[in-house]
Design brief:
Elements (H helix, E strand, L loop, with lengths): L8 E5 L4 H12 L3 E6 L2 H14 L5 E5 L5 H9 L10 E4 L14 H29 L2 E6 L12 H17 L9 E8 L5 H14 L3 H11 L8 H11 L11 E4 L9
Parallel strand pairs: 1-2, 1-4, 2-3, 4-5, 5-6, 6-7
Helix pairs in contact: 1-2, 1-8, 4-5, 6-7
Length: about 260
């Protein structure tokens, strides 16, 4: 299927590895020029080089910056030609806050989580949607978490911050932007084989006294698909949401979890 987005420009945050990298790879494979943002320059440059080699027809640019800071956002938004006006696609993604016990989190921990996982996506939406609307095409995909639908006890910082973003998106996605060709959707990953799952496995192991491998096998057994997802699978879903074929989908929370969530709604 031709997704109809070749030649467009995408900003992909947290793109050096994991789910963000999967999204950047999938978009580049569809002919989308990609600006990849991440904090670690060496890993970012290596990831970008691999994408450029696999998709030589597209432009792959990098910004080594912390997207959760005003300076990082300014650097990212200036790359493709002017503050936020040149991006047709934005994939919002920032590292999730650390797991733990809510009793140990102070105000600073909460503010940091909200800054990264709620306010940063909102700032990038604000910076790009008007340009998208003027051009009659825009796709914003926010990578959140399956915990928005089924909260995870040790991920309380993430539960709270991402749920706030979900509420915001539910309103703005249904504003007049929807009639101007701009869609805003949330993509909710369940358990994917990334560094993030390794961190949560360690936290669960520390809490229960079980080994990480024991917990891994137990978790996979509870997923109807019988395994963790891959970043490439996740990226393919993201690319579809960014396509011309997803123009009638906005304000949605798209769950990708191998069937783990047991609810009907």
């Amino acid at each position: 299927m031709d997704l109809g987005i070749a030649g467009r420009w995408a900003l992909v945050c947290g793109a050096s590895k994991g789910l963000g990298l999967g999204c950047a790879q999938a978009l580049a494979a569809e002919g989308v020029n990609v600006v990849m943002v991440a904090r670690g320059a060496p890993v970012l440059e290596a990831a970008a080089a691999a994408i450029a080699q696999a998709s030589p027809a597209v432009k792959v640019l990098t910004v080594a910056a912390d997207i959760t800071t005003p300076e990082g956002r300014a650097a990212a938004l200036s790359v493709a030609g002017g503050p936020g006006t040149a991006f047709d696609i934005v994939v919002n993604n920032a590292g999730g806050p650390p797991p733990g016990d809510f009793r140990s989190w102070d105000r600073e921990a909460w503010i940091k989580a909200v800054d990264a996982n709620m306010l940063t996506p909102i700032e990038l939406i604000k910076a790009t949607v008007d340009g998208m609307a003027e051009r009659g095409f825009g796709r914003i995909v926010n990578i959140t978490s399956s915990a928005v639908k089924a909260p995870i006890d040790i991920l309380g910082l993430s539960n709270g911050a991402r749920s706030g973003l979900t509420g915001f998106v539910a309103g703005v996605a249904r504003s007049p932007l929807a009639a101007q060709g701009v869609t805003i959707n949330n993509l909710l990953p369940g358990k994917f084989d990334t560094d993030r799952i390794a961190a949560t496995l360690k936290a669960a192991a520390d809490k229960t006294g079980k080994s990480m491998e024991e917990i891994r096998l137990s978790q996979q057994a509870q997923i109807p698909a019988g395994r963790y997802g891959t970043p490439q699978e996740f990226g393919a879903i993201c690319a579809f949401l960014c396509s011309v074929h997803a123009a009638y989908m906005t304000g949605q929370n798209v769950l990708a979890d191998g069937g783990a969530y047991p609810g009907t709604f």
